[in-house]
Specification:
Strand order of the largest sheet: 4-3-2-1-5-6
GO molecular function, one term: hydrolase activity, acting on ester bonds
Number of strands: 6
Largest sheet: 6 strands, mixed
Oligomer: single chain
Shape: globular
EC number: 3.1.-.-
InterPro entries: RNaseH-like_sf, YqgF, YqgF/RNaseH-like_dom, YqgF/RNaseH-like_dom_sf
Radius of gyration: 14 Å
Subcellular location: Cytoplasm
Family: Belongs to the YqgF HJR family.
Helix content: 40-55%
Length: 141
């Protein structure tokens, strides 16, 4: 069994967090937060990360409400981002329910470093970690 490298994204209109993990361990680490203008990242920055890590798969968090329904304000934009990742770079992309990932990320970061740890970039990357680890759990469930 060969290890597969997966990069996850926590899509946002101002910042897009990312995390990297391997399916053998089922764990993820924060990677980088990409600044975005109205949801549009600097695609060159994303391309650099993808070229460096050469992932086997990309996972994009799909914003949903507590009942699992797409959040109308942001879910279509996250789907568009996922489609653009696939179209621009040719990597396979999966969407994964990210419900409550930001809340969980804030809680974990606060436990580790108090308010100082709660910068926007840190929260977005930690959310991407939670999305990816949740995706791993769903694969093995």
């Amino acid at each position: 069994m060969t290890a597969k490298t997966i990069i996850a994204f926590d899509y946002g209109t101002k910042s897009i967090g990312s995390a990297i993990g391997q399916d053998i361990t089922g764990t993820a680490s924060p990677l980088k937060a990409f600044k975005a203008r109205d949801g549009i990242p600097n695609w060159d920055d994303i391309e650099k990360v993808l070229k460096e890590w050469q992932p086997d798969l990309l996972v994009v968090g799909l914003p949903t409400d507590l009942h699992g329904k797409d959040l109308e304000s942001i879910a279509p934009r996250a789907k568009k981002f996922a489609n653009r990742l696939n179209g621009r770079f040719g990597f396979p992309v999966e969407l994964h329910d990210e419900r409550l990932s930001t809340t969980e990320a804030r809680s974990e970061l606060f436990e580790m470093g108090g308010y100082k740890a709660l910068s926007k970039g840190n929260v977005d990357c930690q959310s991407a970690v939670i999305i990816l680890e949740s995706w791993f759990e769903a694969q093995w469930g």
